[in-house]
Amino acid sequence: MKNKEVAEIFRQIAEILEIQEENPFRIRAYLKAAQNVESLSRDVAEVAEKDELEKIPGVGKDLAEKIKEIVKTGKLKFYEQLKDNIPEGLTILMSVPGLGPKTAKLLFDELKIKNIEGLEKAARAHKISALPGIKEKTEENILRGIALIRKAKERMSLAQAMATAAEFVQALRKLKEVKQIEPAGSLRRRKETVRDIDILVTSSQPEKIMDVFTGLGQVKEVKACGPTKSSVLTKDGIQVDLRCVRPKSFGAALLYFTGSKQHNIKLRQLAVKRGLKINEYGLFRGNKWLAGKTEEEMFGRFNLPYISPELREDSGEIEAGLKGKLPKIIDLKDIKGDLHVHSKWSDGASTIENIARASMKMRYGYIAICDHSQSIKIAGGLSIERLKKQIDLIHKLNKKLKDFRVLAGTEVDIKSDGRLDYPDKILKELDIVVAAIHTGFKQSQRQLTQRIIAAMENRYVNVIAHPSGRLIGQREPYDLDMEKVLKKARQTSTFIEINAFPERLDLTDINCRRARELGVKMAISTDAHMLEQLRLMYLGVTVARRGWLEKKDVVNTLPLEKLLQGLRQKR
Which domain holds residue 160? Predict the structure, then answer.
């Protein structure tokens, strides 16, 4: 998929333009287009072929032509010309998250730093903080950014891993020789980032399967090819391993290769206590094979219910299973609507009616339009007058819709002092108020925490969106006392969002579980800016599942009237 390639080129263009002190709106245009292209559920090459690029938010005629050029040639002439105007070492420094282009230029000019290694050495030696105008915390941010880069090179996002695995699985499933096929590993456990992809198959003709697998169009390099196991690298540099196992061992192999390592160790300990042996071939008493065809069969031998892959992290799931206390975790089909969607009124790509119609096709009962508030001008934030007009339009639209409700909402900015971007007299006119931090990420933990607490204390705020502010592989979470935030959410009956956008997946699974323990209700939302992003809900649900959340823990599993009651309970 070209999505990541296009996004990376656009981000680097934005950084070069910032060094050149170009128009900030032009810089923002490239960053916005990069984010939306990267989050596409389809290959951008397919979108280009269908001449639908300008339907992507932030992509006009000019950027659409640039995307077509990247898709067709693998590079962009405009970008190459920009790079010719700045030294190569400066481009490398600008790739570090948390290091702004102007600071990168200062380090390049004053300290002659030209690579990541030199940057790390200078930061650890405190040479950077010695420069005028540079704070000591800058060095900490740089070191964190370098760590992010190295981690990002080792792992891919869950969305990218799922898309890559789907391509291979779909191609192999067409073969009549393939009887069973399933991805395994951390992908099957739905970890937020994945190192490589494992796929298991059963077949009576494994050699045929391996021949087809290593010859697929996505394959750039064959690392190994054997009769029952092969390994390839894709054109995107992703390693994919395929194993062929016997049908009688498929469940055992799937259990073993799904992991996690600690979960498997705990099962082995259980087996030893019962005089059994467990491995990827099955469950044995001595040399006698007892089970292995299915995972259910394997768990059943331990008097355990089936444990969903997302829970297999040795975080108490086996103990809970033995006691009959495993949660009945949420499923995608439980979701009744999306509580955070953007329209054309701010920085989205679709009309409110089109969003409603698309949501109805997904069998939702409601959708919340939460466009940006007035201070977020770069994202087309709505003035009070425009918000009032939008509310009126939504009320009129709802009279046309049958068995469906558009909720009038906002993603209101939490200002640096904790005040909200709209006055209460406007907020009370809305069905739902989603509050979020968009600026001042480098404030102290006390300041950031207090900003969110102040927002939750407002009687009209229903949801805190993308609470940690992180962007996976690009920006670390800001310094927040999450325990205080979650306890205040419980106290004020405020919902915490699980943002399903692929680069966010925020709140994390660990904090979701803590929220559940504290009795905090969650809202799973897509933060969609275009119609196809509504389908990203599945990513938010995977986070919730890993966080042990049940249907009752998530507010947008409620039917409309009960949801509205929940939204009104603070007022």
Answer: 156-245
Sign of CA dihedral 165, 166, 167, 170: positive
**Sign of the C-alpha dihedral, residues 265, 270, 275, 278?**
negative
Number of domains in the chain: 4
Asked if residue 374 is part of any domain, the answer here is: yes
Residue 327, domain member (yes or no): no
The answer to the question of residue 70 being in a domain is: yes
Where do the DSSP E strands lie in 414-513?
432-436, 463-464, 495-499
The one-digit pLDDT tens for each residue of the chain (571 residues) are 578 889 889 988 998 898 888 888 898 889 888 888 887 777 888 889 999 998 888 899 999 999 999 999 988 999 999 988 888 888 888 888 878 888 888 898 889 998 999 999 998 998 998 888 787 788 888 888 888 888 777 888 899 899 999 999 999 999 999 999 999 999 999 999 999 999 999 998 999 999 999 999 999 999 999 999 999 999 888 999 999 999 999 999 999 999 999 999 999 999 999 999 999 999 999 999 999 999 999 999 999 999 999 999 999 999 999 999 999 999 999 999 999 999 999 988 899 999 999 999 999 999 999 999 999 887 889 999 999 999 999 999 999 999 999 999 999 999 999 999 999 999 999 999 999 999 999 899 999 999 999 999 999 999 999 999 998 887 889 999 999 999 999 999 999 999 999 989 999 999 999 999 999 999 999 999 989 899 999 999 999 999 999 999 999 999 999 999 999 988 8
Which of 368, 280, 291 has the alpha carbon at shortest distance from 560? Answer: 368
Based on the domain organization, do 409 and 551 belong to the same domain? yes
pTM flag (> 0.90): no
Q: Give helix 384-400 / helix 352-361 axis angle, nearest 10°.
A: 40
Among all chains, which residue has been given the structure tokens 């977020």?
A: 376
Same domain, 273 and 200: no
Q: Are residues 172 and 141 in the same domain?
A: no
Say if residue 297 is in the same domain as residue 196.
no
Q: Residue 162 is part of a domain; what is its CATH number?
A: 3.30.460.10
Give the domain-ending residue among 322, 341, 363: 322
CATH number of the domain at 453, please: 3.20.20.140
46 and 11 in a common domain: yes
- CA–CA distances in Å: residue 315 to residues 262, 320, 445: 9, 10, 28
Closest CA to 406 of 356, 445, 335, 338: 356
Contacts of 449 (CB under 8 A, 6+ apart): 480, 481, 484, 485
Q: Which of 222, 245, 268 is the last residue of a domain?
A: 245
Residue 331's region, left for phi above 0, alpha for psi from -120 to 50, else beta, is beta
